[in-house]
Design brief:
Blueprint (H helix, E strand, L loop, with lengths): L1 H6 L3 H89 L1
Amino acid sequence: MEEVRSEMPDSTDVTNRLVDLEEKNRLIRDRVLLLGQTVVEERDKNFKEMQELKSTLIKLKEDVGRLKELMQRMAEQITAMARKEELMIIQRQLDLLRKA
């Protein structure tokens, strides 16, 4: 009879083992929850950063468009100014020819 008892695990050993397994299970569950929460927070943070970058990109595109328009107008004005200066030179040359 004593042989049978020594072969069977003691009920306190089984209880201790069960408590240890439950504790490990709880710790793993807590870690998984923390990881999940961290993933969600990182996703939200990345989403906000992407929205800010998108907004900045849109503003930059608008600024580039305005700068292109400004440069085009400046180029047109410079071309017109060059023509006026050329006309003034031709006018002076004609005045000189008339006087001569």
